[in-house]
Amino acid sequence: MDRTDFLKLMAVLPLTEATMKLKELNKITETFNSTEKMPVLFLGHGSPMNAIEENEFVKGFRQVGKTIPKPAAILCVSAHWETKGTFVTAMEKPNTIHDFGGFPKALFDVQYPAPGDPELAKETKKIIKKTDVGLDQNWGLDHGAWSVIKHLYPAADVPVIQMSLDYTQTPQYHYELAKELSSLRDKGVLIIGSGNMVHNLRMIAWDKLHESGFGFDWAIEASEKMKKYILDGDYQQLIDYKSQGRAFDLAIPSPDHYLPLLYTLALKNENEKISLFNDKPVAGSLTMTSLKIEAA
Q1: Is 36 helix (H, G, I), strand (E, B) or coil?
Q2: Which domain holds residue 195?
Q3: pLDDT one-digit tens code per residue, 83-115
Q4: Same domain, 4 and 147
Q5: 19 pLDDT band (50/70/90 cuts)?
Q6: What 3-state class would DSSP assign to 235?
Q7: Quick one: pLDDT at residue 34?
Q8: 224 in Cβ contact with 108 (< 8 Å)
Q9: Are 290 and 198 within 8 A, CB to CB?
Q10: For the chain, how are helix, strand and coil distributed in percent, rounded to 5?
């Protein structure tokens, strides 16, 4: 609704109703007041056990949380919510989803009771023009979101919504869609992509599971190329990852954990810098490499 239409509406409404509408509008506006541009994060989330273990990667998540302004809300694009079409969670109280099996009971006992943000969901739907975004009432927060966000904001006092990955679309499509989220950064919203740049569970070296820093040759080759493209700003090579050769084929056997990286990179402006953290391989066929985009 533009200003002219709004004034016309106020003119015909009874005074009490007009006052209520004005208060409602102010509430929405206050939620998304312009702020200093928020950073963007890509978090290599790795094993769900990172939610309850104390290790160097968890420390890295906590440290990066201390270096950025506390957001008004978080929008997370997680590898673990794939849908036909694009959706955002729009409930007041998202459930903590334990979308895994075979782990200790202590992990299933974890709850991350961060509130949702229906108004942010509506705002996200409004600003995306590339597709019609659905407002979801059923999903919640999967472990790609809560297992890492809990280390950034352990009090669960920052509202969180998730945005799904449309598995029918191309990497180029996802990259272009992500660009449409840019205005949220000016409204106090921290956008997080959560996945892993190198992620091949079928080739995990189980005997090296707890040996930080071990990577197969192909995993290290793919990781180094990815980081070079990232730091050089050569994102088209990353979008066209299927044409990068055998190391990339092994590193990205399916796109789910890789696409959140493209969402993060799409939001970088020319005058911003990228810094890497948690930059290590684990178990041969995974990397925990994470990145932060912020003003230079």
Answers
A1: coil
A2: 35-295
A3: 999 999 999 999 999 999 999 999 999 999 999
A4: no
A5: very low
A6: helix
A7: 55
A8: no
A9: no
A10: 40, 20, 40
Do 199 and 277 lie in one domain? The reply is yes
Structure tokens at 55: 């290790």
Q: Which residues pair with 295 in a beta bridge?
A: 272
Within 10 angstroms of residue 23's Cβ, the number of other Cβ atoms is 9
pLDDT at 11 over 80: no
Residue-level length of the chain: 296
SS3 102: coil
Q: What is the dihedral of CA 219, 279, 162, 166, to 10 degrees?
A: -20
Q: Which tokens belong to 203?
A: 């080739």
- DSSP code for 96: B
Residue 41 corresponds to which amino acid? L
Phi, psi of 55 (to 5 degrees): -150, 180
Residue 287 β-bridge partners: 281
161 forms bridges with which residues in the sheet? 75
Same domain, yes or no, for 26 and 66? no
For the stretch 223-263, pLDDT in tens is: 999 999 999 999 999 999 999 999 999 999 999 999 999 99
Whether residues 23 and 120 fall in one domain? no
Tokens of 102: 């075979």
Residue 274 sits in the same domain as residue 246: yes
Give the C-alpha separation, 114 to 180, whole Å.
25
Tokens for 244?
Answer: 């990068």
Strand partners, 244: none
Distance CA 261, CA 34 (A): 26
Residue with tokens 């106020």: 10
Tell me the per-residue pLDDT of 43-76, one tens digit each, with 9 for 90 and over. 999 999 999 999 999 999 999 999 999 999 999 9
Return the residue matching tokens 């789910």.
256
